[in-house]
Amino acid sequence: MHFITLDNETDFDGWRKAARTLALNDVKPADVTWRVQGDAPELFEPTAPPSEPPQRTFNVSGKFVQLAQTVILHRDPERFALLYRLLWRLRGHHDLLDVATDPDVAEVAGMAKAVRRDEHKMHAFVRFREVGREHKAHYVAWFEPEHHIVELAAPFFARRFADMPWSILTPDLCAHWDGHAVSITPGVAKAEAPTEDRLEETWRRYYASIFNPARLKVKAMQNEMPKKYWRNLPEASLIKPLIAGAERSASAMIANAATEPHKAQKRLEPAMARKHTDDKLETLRDEAAHCRACPLWKDATQTVFGEGPATAKVMLVGEQPGDKEDLAGQPFVGPAGQMLDRALEEAGIDRRLVYVTNAVKHFKFVPRGKIRLHQKPNTSEINACRPWYARERDAIQPDLVVAMGATAAQCVFGKITPVNKNRGRLIDLEDGIRALVTVHPSYLLRLPDAEAKAREYQRFVEDLKMAADLLRKSAHAA
Fold first, then answer.
1. Less Cβ crowding at N or C end of the chain, within 10 Å?
2. Same domain, yes or no, for 348 and 378?
3. Alpha-carbon distance 436 to 427, whole Å?
4. Residue 214 has pLDDT above 80, yes or no
5. Is 384 a member of any domain?
6. Same domain, 88 and 170
7. Helix (H, G, I), strand (E, B) or coil at 371
8. Domain count, the chain
9. Which is nearest to 397 in space by CA: 471, 313, 472?
10. Strand, helix or coil for residue 455
11. 182 and 297 in one domain?
12. Segment 255-308, tens digit of pLDDT
């Protein structure tokens, strides 16, 4: 009898090397016992496989290798023995994997399917919570996988959330991303994971807003989102009440009269561009929520309108909402927003005293799998959304408008306006309002060189200090 001890639960290389040597020495599957280091007290001394006999070799298909790499992640302790038995049989039956009715093949295929399904669930049901604020923020999630999939699933999160530092804690292993590489550490207890953050209520509101009672199928929903995942989801507290009220809500929707379809917005643009001196920001926000002036609304989650006091002396204009803003419905809450908050603080500006908005109010992106890659708005999209900026500015009547980036500058000035050529000086607009052109915070995030990033960040802070000086002068005049 051969007793083979692997280094860890996912030691595929160790299993492959041992299995190959055992098979070359004609060691039958019934004569091998597999275990993992540290799993249980040793009843028998582990034995190394015999040496590979010279002049002997055999090959298996790439299909089996890929299948084994997946199955090795299953939690069933018999997987090592099952894979070796399948490998043993493949030596004499090269097409065995194509026999779906074979018991070993069917069992291995079921294990692989379970691993892939668990990976999918991890992608879908990980919820990050913010620890710290602004440039010191770190995002931490807790997940309880069925199988050993943490290392398999981690690259997805590195691609999806490449611009934020995060950690995914599990009882088995923990994955961490620092913006450059994924690192793996031992598992931890759930008590080490955060339980709440400042965006929790925003996520719950978003979940409630996309819940459609008319399309609810409880069994299908629970099949896709099993109850065991609910305890770690911030929206879990809403699921039962939403299900309970679904029938009532659907009946109310049916009882309501059908609404007229939206008419083409091009006919409304001239009227929208007129000056409305009595506009209130809340009224504007409600109107903008139904804007269809350009096609961007079709793929975006929601309109992301401006935010801040109606009496703000400074109005900050960015390019467009990003992925995080699109989900939250608020401007500058993602990585660029954190960069902006940090720069405003260093410049001596309280963000609560300024009005923050974007030239374009819907997120423009191109999907790459489950990732949404930001796309620059074109001139027609900027022009379609410009009336909203104009009405925001008329409602607020700021002393200074800060255009952050080329898209914002094009919106503020109504024409293509180079950033570097116009940066660092106050420019007069109509009605006594002045404008300042600077870079967008996301530009700083994209700079690969640390020295250049530090230098450009300081220039950005210096630009914002001009706005801070104007705020102080306004306060003195008042």
1. C
2. yes
3. 6
4. no
5. yes
6. no
7. strand
8. 4
9. 313
10. helix
11. no
12. 555 555 544 444 344 434 334 433 578 889 989 988 989 999 988 899 999 999
Same domain, 304 and 443: yes
Tens digits of residue pLDDT in 342-387: 999 999 999 999 999 999 999 999 887 667 888 999 999 999 999 9
The torsion angles phi and psi of 354, rounded to 5 degrees, stand at: -115, 160
End-of-domain residue from the set 99, 121, 143:
121
| pLDDT of amino acid 470 | 81
pLDDT of residue 197: 66
Secondary structure (3-state) at 166: strand
**242, pLDDT greater than 80:** no
Strands 166-169 and 371-374 come out as unpaired
For residues 135 and 99, membership in a common domain is answered with no
Domain identity same for 6 and 27: yes
- Mean confidence (pLDDT) of the chain: 84
Which of 330, 303, 331, 328 lies closest to 317, judged by CA? 331
Last residue of a domain, one of 74, 103, 121: 121
Domain match, 117 and 130 both = no
- ∠ CA 456-458-464, nearest 5°, is 105
**414: CATH:** 3.40.470.10
- Measuring CA to CA, how many Å separate 287 from each of 4, 291, 299, 387? 69, 7, 19, 12
* Residue 81 belongs to a domain: yes
The DSSP secondary-structure symbol of 307 reads: B
Cα separation, 451 vs 440, in Å, equals: 18
Residue 271 lies in a domain: no
pTM of the model: 0.49
The answer to whether 25 touches 17, Cβ cutoff 8 Å, is no
The verdict on 184 and 212 lying in the same domain is no
Distance of CA 115 to CAs 14, 71, 122, 373, Å? Answer: 20, 7, 11, 28
How far apart are alpha carbons 169 and 185 in whole angstroms? Answer: 9
141 DSSP β-pair partners? 168
pLDDT > 80? residue 226: no
Output the DSSP codes for 366-389.
EEETTEEEE----HHHHHHHHHHH
Closest of 220, 76, 94 to residue 146, by C-alpha:
76
Q: Distance between CA 37 and CA 80 in Å, rounded?
A: 13
Output the CA–CA distances (angstroms, integers) from residue 15 to 7, 69, 82, in the order listed: 9, 10, 12
Domain residues for the domain of 311 are 276-477
